[in-house]
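Quick one, probably user error.
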C-alpha cells in the first residue's frame, strides 16, 4: 500500500522507515529543506536521526499534496504545539477514505484537547487512530524490538495501522480506549521530567521508584475521570511508556529534568535542543486539564512549580513527602 508520514522529526522518520521496510510506498513530509535533501540523496535524516540509514522506499517531500497522494494511511508526527496548524494545511489534500493516525504525544495547550481530537477537528474526520507506547525513535530505526498500541473507536482503522506497521521487530496491538492511550503517552512525559529532577538531585533509586509508581496512580486517576479504562494505564501506553521514558538514557524529557535537578534553569536545560521535550509543554496542559476535571495530581503540580514558578527542586520534593498521610488506593 501507499502510506505517508507528516512530520520528519526522529519519530516520524523512524515510522516512515518501518513502513518502507514492510514494503509500502512511503511519502515523508518535512518542513526543512535540508531534511528533504538528505533523505532523498543519502537516505539519512542527518538533522534528526543522524547515523541511521533509511530504506530507499522513504521519499521525502516539501509538498504535502505529493506526500499524501493516494495514501491509505497518513500518520501525523508533528510536535503537539504545531499539530493543529500542520493538520489544517494537510486537510485539503486528504481523501475521505484515508485512515488517519497520530503518533504525537501531548495535550494541546489552548484547548486541552488530545492529539486525535486536534487532528479530527482540523481535517473533519470523525475517527483518528492514536499510536503510542514505549518507543525511542533511534531504537526503532535500528530495528530493535518494539511494541506499540494503535487505538481507535473503529477497530478496522486500528487494524489497518496494525497491519501496515507490524513486522518481526515492530509489534502493534489494537485497542479501543483512545483517551487512555493518548493520556498515557502525554502524561508520562511530565513524569519523566519529574524523575529526571529526582535523579539530578541524587535522591536515589527508592525515590525514583516511588515517583514512577505514584505518577502512574495520578495518570490513572485523571484518565478514569475523563472516561478512560484503568487497565489501559497498566499496558504499553501507560506503564510501558512511563518506565521507558523515566529511566531510559535516550529520554529527552528525563534529560531536561536531570539538568534542572543538577542546578540548571529551564532555559539552560532547553538551550540548543533540536527536538522538543513534550513534558515541559504538557506540564502546563496536564495541570490545567486536572484542574478542570477536579482531579488531584501533586506530582504534576510540583513539576509545574519547578518549571514555571521558580520553586527549588529540593523544596518541591520535600513538600511532596510532607503531604497529608493517606491510603495508597483511592477507593480504600
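Nope, works fine. Designed sequence:
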Amino acid at each position: 500500500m501507499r502510506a505517508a508520514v507528516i512530520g520528519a522529526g526522529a519519530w516520524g522518520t523512524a515510522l516512515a522507515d518501518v513502513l518502507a521496510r514492510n514494503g509500502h510506498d512511503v511519502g515523508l513530509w518535512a518542513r526543512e529543506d535540508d531534511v528533504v535533501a538528505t533523505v532523498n540523496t543519502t537516505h539519512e535524516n542527518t538533522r534528526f536521526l543522524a547515523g541511521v540509514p533509511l530504506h530507499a522506499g522513504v521519499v521525502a517531500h516539501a509538498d504535502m499534496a505529493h506526500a499524501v497522494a493516494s495514501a491509505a494511511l497518513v500518520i501525523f508526527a508533528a510536535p503537539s504545539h504545531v499539530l493543529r496548524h500542520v493538520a489544517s494545511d494537510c486537510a485539503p489534500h486528504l481523501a475521505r477514505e484515508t485512515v488517519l493516525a497520530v503518533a504525537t504525544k501531548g495535550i494541546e495547550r489552548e484547548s486541552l484537547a488530545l492529539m486525535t481530537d486536534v487532528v479530527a477537528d482540523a481535517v473533519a474526520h470523525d475517527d483518528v487512530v492514536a499510536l503510542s507506547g514505549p518507543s525511542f525513535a533511534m531504537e526503532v530505526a535500528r530495528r530493535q524490538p518494539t511494541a506499540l498500541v494503535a487505538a481507535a473507536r473503529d477497530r478496522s482503522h486500528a487494524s489497518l495501522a496494525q497491519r501496515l506497521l507490524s513486522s518481526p521487530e515492530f509489534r502493534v496491538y489494537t485497542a479501543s480506549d483512545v483517551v487512555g492511550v493518548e493520556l498515557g503517552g502525554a502524561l508520562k512525559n511530565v513524569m519523566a521530567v519529574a524523575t529526571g529532577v529526582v535523579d539530578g538531585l541524587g535522591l536515589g533509586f527508592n525515590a525514583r521508584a516511588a515517583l514512577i509508581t505514584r505518577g502512574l496512580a495520578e495518570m490513572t486517576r485523571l484518565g478514569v475521570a475523563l472516561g478512560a479504562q484503568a487497565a489501559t494505564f497498566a499496558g504499553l501506553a501507560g506503564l510501558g511508556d512511563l518506565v521507558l521514558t523515566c529511566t531510559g538514557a535516550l529520554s529527552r524529557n528525563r534529560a531536561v529534568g536531570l539538568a534542572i535537578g543538577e542546578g540548571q534553569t529551564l532555559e539552560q536545560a532547553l538551550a540548543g535542543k533540536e527536538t522538543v521535550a513534550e513534558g515541559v509543554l504538557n506540564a502546563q496542559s496536564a495541570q490545567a486539564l486536572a484542574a478542570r476535571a477536579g482531579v488531584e495530581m501533586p506530582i504534576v503540580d510540583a513539576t509545574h512549580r519547578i518549571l514555571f514558578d521558580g520553586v527549588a527542586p529540593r523544596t518541591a520534593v520535600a513538600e511532596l513527602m510532607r503531604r497529608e498521610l493517606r491510603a495508597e488506593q483511592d477507593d480504600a
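Residues 2-176 form a domain with the Rossmann fold fold (CATH 3.40.50.720).
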